[in-house]
Amino acid sequence: MPEIIEEFLDDGVAKCIAFNRRGSLLAAGCADGSIVIWDFDTRGTSRIWRNGHRDAVTSVSWTKDGHYLVSSSMDSTVVQWKVLEGEAVCTVKLSAPAVSARVHPYDADVCVVSLANSLPPHLIRFSSKRQHPLPVATSLEPSPDTLQQANSAEPTTSDKAEKEKGTRSSRSGTGSLLAVATFSRRGDLVYVGSNKGTITVIDTASCAILDVVKVAGGSAIKGLVCNRTGTHL
Fold it and tell me: Which of 109, 112, 110, 115 is nearest to 167 (CA)?
């Protein structure tokens, strides 16, 4: 436990926080949809962004160079921010509330978003606003339908509804799905943990399933974090 509390963040009720890579800035997503950037050099608030979300912010994720920040919200949006200018560069509307978003470690244009309402995580490209649902294996033997989805081409805007309908039907009878996702250190892999106690390893480029790992005891996975060297998850 800390012996001394040096500062208080008084600009909102924080729901999530994240340091940039240098540890000089702290981003806090708040319950009212605002995002506060705290500067540890000046010991004060650097920026407050209020025009990005209309509901509680669920996650904030920095790019490796610290130039961009990605935020997700219960209002079913993901926003890409340009930190220096303090402006929202791109807003992507999702089909469900966003539980969390993680930006690619080497490509600020790509992020992976975990969704509520039993929907699988989506891989998002901000420049085109394209959304690609990722396969989630709930057992050690992925079904043929799941593998077919993994190796299929990225869906176009016109067939999103049909694709989502197929995704839901492939999960029928397995109960509700809750999944969280994050990138590997190099960004070439996506790890997807499910409430069924499985971790699905997915190739970022092809969205194909490479491996499925069952966690001992089958406990629900609620979060995934890689260490800085990428050797442990």
Answer: 115
What's the whole-model pTM score? 0.79
How far CA 15 is from CA of 64, 168, 179, in Å, comes to 22, 30, 19
Write a three-state SS string for 37-98: EEECCCCEEEEEECCCCCCCEEEEEECCCCCEEEEEECCCEEEEEECCCCEEEEEEECCCCE
CA angle 108, 79, 183 (to 5 degrees): 45
Beta partners for residue 49, in sequence order = 35
What is the per-residue pLDDT across 137-180, written as a single tens digit (0 to 9) for each? 877 655 445 455 545 545 444 344 434 443 443 343 345 678 89
